[in-house]
Amino acid sequence: MTEGVIKPLDSPIQLPAPIYRDLRAIYTLWLRDIIRLWRDKVRLVGSLIQPVLFLFILGGGLKGRFSGGFSGGGNYQQFIFPGILAMSILFTASFAGIAVVWDREVGFLKEVLVAPLSRTAVVLGKVLGGSTNSLVQGLILFSLYPFFGIHLNPARFILAVMTMFVIGLAQTAMGIALSVRMSSSQGFMVLLNFIILPLYFLSGAMFPLNGLPKWLSLAVILDPVTYGVDLLRGILLGAHHFSLLVDILALGAFGSIMIFLAVRLFNMESPV
Amino acid sequence: MIRIENLKKEFVTPSGIRTAVKGLDLKVGTGEFFALLGPNGAGKTTTISILATILKPTSGSVRVDDLDVEKEPHLVRQKIGIIFQDPSLDDRLSALENMEFHGRLYGMSRNQRRERTEILLHMVDLWNRKDDLVRSFSGGMRRRLEIARGLMHYPRLLILDEPTIGLDPKTRRVIWEYVHQSRKKWGMTVFLTTHYLEEADSADRVGVMDEGSLVALDTPEKLKKMVGPEIVILQTDPHSLESVCQYLENTFGIRDFHSEAPGELTFPMPTGVESVINIVRSIPASIRSMTIRTPDLDDVFIQMTGKNMVLNQENASPFHRVYRGKL
């Protein structure tokens, strides 16, 4: 045993102010997610397969069938590109919720819950980690845009990245809010499919929003993901269904509500 | 260091409200080594979870270092190091990364983290595996890493919930040595729950908890004296066990019998009665053998709770339980 000399210490650790301490904790939680993402490169690549199949096979196959009918004058492949980007982010972001359930299952969540940081910091750290993760996946897919004849100036490029990040943020927060009461990751997967697939299909990612039956267009309006997809399409293709201001407000409201909800639920006593 | 007053904790379950802790009162002084014993389901882990600010009390007050666990959970958490009964490591990170993560969350500087990690990983003999992912660790190695991590931020109060389950005797000894060193170095208080009674034996005070409240609280020596000066173990014919019990109770007022094997009978000798030899000689049944020993904490436990600590564990054979039920 190589034991150095430790003075009889009362509190050797200089405690920073609560805000600074929470910021550090958020960074620490984020860092852990990034290390884990980097270590799990197989998952990173694997989760790109599905959106790529959608883009090239579904998009390529239907491109010739639906020609010219899309707002902005693009083809079907161009039309679904923003939708597929949103899909990729949606699914990856929801995984952050599974990660929380998984942490609970393996017991690591207890280590975080007894550490001196607020529950709010726990949620924000997880939300930032999860949305960074989904942004990385989204960016890999996004880098394919020149292949679809999409041209972007730097301003649009940056706006698109920001939109993707906000969609990820909102979805991660939703996943985490849903995870609070869940103790089995399998049960959580079922719940997620139940929620995410309808959100995705109703978002207009795969079809244009004009001329829909009344019940369907109502469902589309109620789906918060619709506005993220529409905003992304507006930025990438210059074609959008709602006004961009409506899109931005709806997306921002959805994100804020989800983060608020996740923080509230997490602050209640949760079974560990 | 710890002041628990009239603590109650209720859980809502599908079968109604279950009270896990019923009006617990307990004080533990700074630097004290306190051990809490109790059968499974006695409320030990619930009490610890409330101390560690994971659960909130239903009523009553809990203070750690004069801080209320409900009102100032962050400050309480900074002072506590906890080693859980179940694993709580990130197995996709390395041993070093797990330590780093902990040190950062507890506000330690880079130098402090580096220094503590090195000392503690050497202590638990994991320094040469520091860069390996925890996934590749055995159960005992994970346990050791958790103990190192719990001590990392110089906790004022170390909470150990069944900490040494699954550890070999050598590792247990090394860890206990370090825990006691830390108590001396920075006046750390230790709050332990354990099934290993010899670990509780070296505690300053022992509390026995049963069905949500304390049934005994004193130094190990005094608790053992309460049981009686001696414990007698008789080997007799399994069929006459019950009549022997009745005879001893009616004639000498001996109680608290229990049995751990067929035909075996264990009971504490009350003080101020006749000598053991005379009593045993007078039993109207054949006695094959007799053993006399001094009481240990297990005897205290049996007398206080009517339950056997050892039999409470998972490895108790069904036979033992059935047999005990008959007595």
From TrEMBL, chain A:
Q: Name one Pfam family in it.
A: ABC2_membrane
Entry membrane topology: Multi-pass membrane protein
What's a single GO CC term here?
A: ATP-binding cassette (ABC) transporter complex
What molecular functions are annotated in GO for this chain? ABC-type transporter activity
The ABC transmembrane type-2 domain, residue ranges: 42-269
> Matching InterPro entries, A to Z?
ABC2_TM (IPR013525), ABC2_TM_bact-type (IPR047817), ABC_2_transport (IPR000412), Nod_factor_ABC_transporter (IPR051784)
What PROSITE patterns does this protein map onto? ABC_TM2
Q: Does the keyword Chaperone apply?
A: no
Transmembrane region(s)? 42-59, 79-102, 123-145, 157-178, 190-209, 244-266
**Where would you find this protein in the cell?**
Cell membrane; Membrane
Q: What is its main location?
A: membrane
The alphabetical list of record keywords is: Cell membrane, Membrane, Transmembrane, Transmembrane helix, Transport
**Entry's family note:** Belongs to the ABC-2 integral membrane protein family.
Q: What is this protein called?
A: Transport permease protein
Q: What is the lineage of its organism?
A: Bacteria, Pseudomonadati, Nitrospirota, Nitrospiria, Nitrospirales
UniProtKB/TrEMBL annotation, chain B:
Provide a GO biological process annotation. doxorubicin transport
GO cellular component terms given for this protein: plasma membrane
A Pfam family matched by this chain, by name?
ABC_tran
Q: Where in the cell is it found?
A: Cell membrane
Q: What is this protein called?
A: ATP-binding cassette domain-containing protein
Concerning its family, UniProt says: Belongs to the ABC transporter superfamily. Drug exporter-1 (DrugE1) (TC 3.A.1.105) family.
Q: Where is the ABC transporter domain?
A: 2-236
Kindly state which keywords UniProt assigns to this record, in alphabetical order: ATP-binding, Nucleotide-binding
